[in-house]
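Example S7 (structure tokens).
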């Protein structure tokens, strides 16, 4: 049987240059993603899999994201937070109607799990990504902190995620955040044909 064609890569949005001057002052805010944010989410996920690099596994479309990510209220299932940046301050009380200078620079996707050892729920971070030209500005820390603050607010016991072993910058960032890197644990995965074989077994 012929292999299905990969979906087309998302069109990159016009925006700032690949690098920004170190002195560029940016204001940032985080908001809960909604269905209208799917085009931004799709582009960011595509950029993330290029960075890893895992483009051979990329099959998401805007349609598939729309139909799977927003099926439950936030924090009860999949939740996405988007981080926006702008050279001008965001208003405190009213929405910023002028979005010409507002750029979506990163996201974090997480969902609830259950920690049998703690007898409490927790959050699992499936993906956190900041566009390359906006790194080293504290935006990754802002996104992860938003998840941990929500976990504490809800009485959750832990926030977990995995990191690729070659990504020393991210490992250093995780440790600076106070995370414990668990070298004795190995990730396991059933997917594709193996999942179908065992999922269909009696």
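Recovered sequence:
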């Amino acid at each position: 049987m012929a292999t299905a064609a990969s979906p087309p890569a998302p069109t990159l949005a016009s925006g700032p240059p690949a690098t920004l001057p170190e002195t560029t002052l940016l204001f940032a805010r985080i908001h809960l993603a909604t269905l209208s944010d799917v085009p931004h989410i799709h582009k960011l996920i595509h950029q993330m899999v290029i960075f890893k690099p895992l483009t051979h596994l990329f099959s998401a479309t805007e349609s598939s994201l729309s139909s799977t990510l927003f099926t439950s209220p936030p924090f009860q299932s999949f939740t996405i937070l988007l981080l926006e940046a702008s050279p001008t301050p965001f208003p405190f009380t009213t929405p910023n109607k002028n979005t010409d200078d507002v750029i979506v620079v990163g996201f974090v996707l997480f969902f609830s799990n259950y920690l049998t050892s703690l007898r409490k729920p927790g959050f699992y971070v499936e993906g956190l990504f900041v566009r390359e030209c906006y790194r080293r500005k504290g935006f990754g820390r802002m996104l992860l902190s938003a998840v941990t603050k929500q976990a504490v607010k809800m009485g959750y016991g832990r926030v977990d995620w995995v990191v690729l072993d070659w990504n020393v910058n991210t490992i250093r960032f995780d440790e600076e955040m106070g995370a414990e890197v668990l070298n004795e644990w190995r990730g396991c995965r059933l997917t594709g044909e193996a999942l179908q074989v065992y999922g269909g077994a009696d």
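Notes on this example. The beta strands are 27-32, 79-86, 103-115, 120-130, 159-160.
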